[in-house]
Every structure is written in C-alpha cells, then in structure tokens.
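Hi X.,

You mentioned you wanted examples for the new student's onboarding notes, showing what a folding record looks like when two proteins sit in one file. Here is a clean example. The first protein comes first, with its sequence line followed by its structure tokens.
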Amino acid sequence: MRITVVGGGVIGLLTAIECVRASRTATGAERVERVDLVDAARIPSPSATSNDRLRVVRALHRGNPALTLAAAGVHAGWMDVESVVGAHFYHPAGALTAMPAEELPAELALLIETGAKAWALSPEDLAAWYPRIRFPVGAGAVLEATAGAVLADHALVALARWLGRNPVVRLHPHRPAVEVTESGGAAVLRFGNGATLTADRLVLAAGPWSRELVPADVGADLTLYRQSVLSYRPAASLQEWTGVPAVLGLGPARDAWLMPAVPHSDAPVRLSAASACRPVAELTDRVTPDRWREHLVEVFSQLLDGFDPSAVTEATDGYYLAESHHGGPLLATYGAGTIWAYAACGGMSFKFAPLIARAIADHALGRPPRPTGLPSIDRPRQLAAVGEE
C-alpha cells in the first residue's frame, strides 16, 4: 500500500510516522510500502499552525468532563512520540487553571479520576505562590502537575528528521497541491505545474489551507480564525518566570492565558486571550495589527504585576480552521475511504496530535481505529465521492 500525506505540520508529520510504524507490523497486501509527505513549503512547514514556540499539553478542560477524559491520554501520547523519534521537547512544567473557588472540588475530582496528579490551590495559595499574577477576585485554581509544554518548533524538526531518515518515506517540499481527486480506485494529488502523485490512500492535513482542497460542502462548514500572541521577555525577571506552569482562566472573562518560560530554552513567555482571536475571510500575513497588539498589552497590564510593555519583543498572528457549529476539528472521508481529510485543525489540535494522528492512520489503513474520545475523529463524516478524473 502506498500512502500520501499532504501537510508538513504536526498532524501530517505524526500521521506519516504512524503509517511508517504500521509498515513494520503489517503483512501482505496491507503492508505500507511507501509514504509520500508533501507540503507547499519546507518540511516541516514554517507557516504551519503548529510551528510555534510553545504549546500547552493538559487534560483539564473546565466545565467539559468529556473533553477532560479525552485529554487524559495526551501526556502519555507525547512521551511516546519522544521515545519513537529519540528527541526531547516535552517539558512537564504543569498547568494551572483558575476558576471560582466553589468549582474546585468537582473539577479536581474529575481530573484525579483520569489518573492525573493534581491538587487544588486556594486564593491565598495563589497569592503566595504566584505573586506576579493577578487572578480573578475569589478565584482558586487546579494545578495539574502532569501537564506541560511542548517546544513545538523543536518537535516538528525532530519529526521531520525522523521521517527523512526512514527508507519508506519520500519527502516532497515546495510542491503546492491544487486538487485532490479519485481515479480508478486510487487517490490523485495534482500539483500547480500539472504533475500528479497517485496513492492507494491519501491523507489531507494541510491545516488552514485544507479548505482550498476539500469538497465545497465540507469547506462551507469551516471557519478560519486568526489569533494574536505576544512574546514577553522581561530582561530583569525572565528567570522568575522559568518553571512557572502554564496559566489559564485569567481576566474578568477568564479567557486570557500565559505559556511559561521553559528551562534550558530561549523561548519567551507567551501571552494571549480568546478576545484576540477573530474569524477572518482569508489567509494573509502574520503581522499583528497594532490594535490587537495594543489590546493584548492592555489586557496583561491588568493581569501581571509589574508588566513592562517594552519587554514585548514580538507579536505574531497564527491561523486555524474550526468546524463552524462545534468549534473543533473535523475528519471527513470520501468515496470508499480512499481520501481522508483532517479538514479543520481546531484550536486544540496540537495537544491531541498524537492521538488524532494515530486514529487517522488507522482509518486510512483500514484498521480498527483506536478511540480518541473526540466525536468528530471517532465518527468521521462520510461523503459519497469526489470527482473522478
């Protein structure tokens, strides 16, 4: 069996790895003989949604027991990825989720039920442990010790290097795809210069660019979002932020968050809020408009004691697709399972990436898929077909 994966971000890279791993155990007609990984840019893609400095990996999703239970396996998933590729990029610095103090017992009990190591912090604990952070009045927090941060750009490089060393894999950078079709029971990927690549199965995982390649009825259900993020590097006190957990649930709307400074890394503190995420019509540049930079500076001036606007070294924008009705990822298959499209990456794809990629590979290879706990992945949308050549 020959597999083509389109997309050099975290889902594409990990799906290709899972297909290679399957080639070691499959036999006969089911054996994966070749995996082609294609991207319009370099591999890993510098413009991929997942090609970021830091990404938080956590189980607790306040007010959403189903998602918390689904996320319980992400810690082990990332540890497994590190073991497979022989690199270290996951740092279990913990995650702190602020919430009204009366919600702490139920949220903590659910998290502990998943097997996570966690405990509750009172408003007094927060004031003593994290004096630089201004938590909402009366808020406590759940500290999830087994959560952490992934150095995302380091991870993508390690995944791409592992694939590049594998004899089953062919990397195809700088080859923009313009069309996905079926012909004679095979998947056909067409490039801008008219060349084609044919495979028994094709996985489309091109992040925000997937909308240009999926059928119109799928594309119509996808919303493109643009998110602004600040890089914060206070020269005199960056060390004070090293080892601080990721913090979520800040501000009056409890929608602001910070990602920590990771030990032995040059990654700065990252700051953003849901209020800096907005739907947009198309992909353009990644330069943060002044109004959104100023908005986030104002937000964190109220949330961090001694916040220094001059220590904001960078502001960048990223894009992601989400399913319009439920706001999460979307997996669709065409025809008789020849083409599988992870058509919406959602805002939470990175932390779930090891589980999602494993499930996509299972689906594409015709194996019983291992459940992720994400309904849109475990029950993918079935489409009749795509146009035959």
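Then the second protein repeats the pattern, sequence line and then tokens:
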Amino acid sequence: MERDQKPLTHDWREKLFIIIFQADTAKGKAFDVVILWLIVLSVLAVIVESVPDIEEKYSNGLKLLEWGFTLVFTVEYFLRILCVRNKWRYISSALGIIDLLTILPTYLGLLFAGMQYFLVIRALRLLRIFRILKLGRYVGESHLLIKALQASRFKITVFLSTVLTLVVIIGTLMYVIEGADSGFTSIPVGMYWAIVTLTTVGFGDITPVTFAGRTLAAVVMILGYGIIAVPTGIVTVELAHQSKKQRQELVCTGCGAGGHDGDAGFCKYCGEKLV
C-alpha cells in the first residue's frame, strides 16, 4: 500500500518521502527500524501500566512516556501526510487508518478514562516489518490460506450449525438430568457447560453429580475430541486443493506455457523450473 504513494515534486518533501516510505535506502530502513522499536516500547509501556503496583509507583513517569511516544507518532503521521501527493489515498488506506488509530487513544484519554489501554493497537504497525525485511513475497502464502478458508466456508457453516444443535440438545438434557441443585439453573447454563465440555476446555465451575449426568458428560468429552478434528480436516483438504490449483495456473518463465500438473516441479514443454 505504501509503495503506491507518490512524493511531491518539492526537493525536501521528496527526500522526506524517500526516508519515510521507502525502506530500500539506508536512511529509510534506519527510520523504519527506529519507529518499530518505539512501537514495541510504547506497547510494553501500556502493558506495564496495567499492573497495579507498577502503576502506583511510576504513574507519572509512564504517563510522560505515553505522551512522548504519542507526540513522536503524531509528528510522524503528519509528516507522512505532508510528503505524499495524494494525501487522501494515504489517510484512507489501511496503514493510514492504523497510524491514526495509534495516536487517538491518548488524546481521547483526556475525555474518557481508560482509553490509553487501546494504545496496544500500535502493535498492528509492526506489520511494516514485512516491508523492511522484504518478506512481502510470503504474503502470497497468506492469500492461499484465505482462499482455502473461503472455499471451505459452506462446509464449516454446516459443521458449526450441527455443533450448535448438539449444544442445545446436550444443554437441555443436562438441565433436565441435573437441575438447579447441581448448578444447572437454566438451559442456557446447560448450553454453556456443553460448549465448555465439547471444546475440551473444562473450566470445572459447573460439574454433574448424578450417574446419568456424568455418563452424558463422558460421551460429550469423547465427542469433543472427534469434533475438533473436523474443521482442521476440511481446511487442510481445501488448502491442498488450492495449492494444486495454484500450481496448475503457473506460467513457465522459459516458454510461457501453462496448464501444468499439480505436482509438477518443471515445465513439461521446455524443462524450465517452475517458480
């Protein structure tokens, strides 16, 4: 997204653009590394501030740090706007919105208590590490995963509908079997227990005491292990299918031919390695 930005023609703004938006230069990379470290430190400061003992002792220092980080990020945000030609394109882009959201909580904290904890959203800015370390080529793998999830959405919807139906039935049965004396005061409470048990979380805040209730609980626990494997299998199959499909769509860099086999490593026409 940042690659699409274009600098203004003024000399100093163009130099600023190169430093802020381009990580290929030494200054640009240094700028991004400094910003990333500031992001890490600011997120750590917010996390530490939530610890009562630390907040009580170092409240003033932490607040000064918070404002210091916010002022730096505010200046950076406006510099980004200043040095691009299409300002609205940057402001409305995903990274532009994230940059804005990372500075707003501190200012909103003057009006609303507790807003400073939303500053942890700054962690999203660490996504820029993909650009700095030139990991953009791996983004294609995430697209493959997204396609697999999209292709399996109907199967997963049917699966989740079945699970929800089981939860209602099991929750109702447990409510009837155990009753309020065992903590199952309503069907929703029974459904809550069914979800916790079916997912093998097992908080243990509500437990059956009767023989029938324990028998049903044992069945639900065993059923839970089988249910966990179902969505994993669905997505794995679709992932393999999408990977094979992507391979078939590859175009040979040597002769330009397509339509290769799903497991092909080399072009069947010229022998060039498929990449």
